[in-house]
Design goal:
Length: 382
């Protein structure tokens, strides 16, 4: 039962509020005025009735709770590593040692503003989303009764229009890159597979007779660990892609020239037969190749070969659903958000459709009027 007691120590008068929390533990808090103690107890009682009570003296720090939350999440290995890195680099230096229930919305807003000065809007949104998820969990666990992330104003992502590579540049990249990786470029440009999906392709996933490739794994890289095969990015990323003849030919020639020696059957490896690492491949193979390709746009990456593949499908009249399926997008909206500007403008088609109907009707009416005006009966008097 809650109560307020008057206490006098060394001539100083205070008021002690006592109550039992939902777990039955005795709690107390001292106030300088009785009215403040009464108000506090009224608030505590109301929160317990609503099931929103949290211990105001909870000493749990943000870091302590965030680490418990992090290890309990059902994340892919790459996502686990990504979350751990972001918390360690960008969140813990600001809030790690703070009591979880002491962080205020204004402090979250200030933190976001500081991050925006050095990081992209997309990265800031990801970081804020991680912290918001932690507080959402903390509310369920009754460590806090409200999230300081509610109402935060986040920087907006600037729309970036995809500009596909020209075919001659794709050809130049494929011909300039070391021969060992020629088929890798052809595969990426001819199937739209992601870099990790290409690096993780094994011989048993290719059906040369039917001309298809099954995508159900990717090569992932974790800090201070060897690359491993893991499920692809999303459920929608599991897909079967038709292989054009040019891709089949390149793969057959690659396997002939570079026999598979990796235990997992990886098709693409380095000179030592080891899995390709993103950073090493970019530094030692991809960037030197681009430097030798005239007119290659600055910042071109392997992902641009995926955009090139999508642009070919769109140019040859494939539907949004087909492009979505081939690329392994989770929704058609994701496909449209990225490539809508590449579909042919329907303005002329709309004009032609209207002209063919309304124009014909208007012409027919004019012809009838002309016939009526030329008819003798139209000019004769009764």
């Amino acid at each position: 039962m809650a109560s307020v007691e008057k206490r006098v120590r060394n001539g100083k008068q205070t008021w002690l509020a006592r109550w039992r929390d939902p777990d039955g533990r005795q709690r107390k808090r001292s106030f300088a005025r009785k009215v403040d103690a009464d108000r506090f107890l009224a608030k505590v009682n109301a929160e317990m009735l609503r099931g929103e009570y949290v211990d105001p003296s909870d000493p749990t720090t943000f870091r302590e709770y965030a680490e418990r939350w992090r290890v309990s999440q059902v994340h892919r290995p790459t996502t686990q590593a990504h979350v751990e890195t972001n918390l360690r680099r960008h969140v813990y230096p600001h809030f790690g040692d703070r009591r979880l229930n002491s962080v205020r919305p204004s402090e979250i807003q200030s933190w976001v503003t500081r991050l925006t000065a050095t990081l992209s809007p997309a990265t800031v949104q990801v970081l804020h989303g991680i912290v918001a998820s932690i507080y959402k969990s903390a509310i369920r666990d009754r460590h806090v009764n409200a999230s300081p992330c509610e109402g935060t104003k986040l920087p907006k992502k600037q729309p970036r229009e995809v500009v596909p590579l020209r075919t001659e540049i794709v050809h130049s990249i494929a011909e300039t890159i070391p021969e060992r990786y020629h088929a890798l470029v052809v595969l990426a440009a001819g199937t739209g597979m992601r870099q990790g999906e290409c690096f993780g392709l094994t011989l048993d996933r290719i059906d040369f007779m039917r001309g298809t490739v099954r995508v159900d794994r990717q090569l992932v890289h974790l800090a201070r660990k060897e690359p491993v095969l893991a499920p692809p990015k999303t459920i929608a990323s599991h897909r079967t892609i038709p292989l054009p003849t040019v891709v089949v030919t390149a793969l057959v020639e690659h396997v002939r020239r570079y026999p598979i020696t990796h235990p997992e059957g990886l098709i693409f490896t380095d000179d030592d037969g080891k899995p390709l690492r993103r950073t090493a491949f970019s530094r030692e193979i991809w960037r030197p190749t681009l430097a030798a390709v005239p007119d290659a746009p600055a910042g071109t990456g392997m992902h641009d070969l995926r955009h090139y593949y999508a642009s070919l499908l769109i140019r040859h009249g494939e539907s949004v659903k087909t492009v979505q399926s081939r690329l392994g997008h989770a929704t058609a909206a994701e496909t449209l958000d990225t490539y809508a500007h590449l579909w042919p403008d329907s303005a002329e088609t709309t004009r032609d459709a209207v002209d063919q109907v309304l124009g014909r009707t208007s012409t027919e009416r004019t012809d009838r009027e002309d016939v009526t005006l030329r008819s003798p009966s139209a000019t004769s008097r009764p």
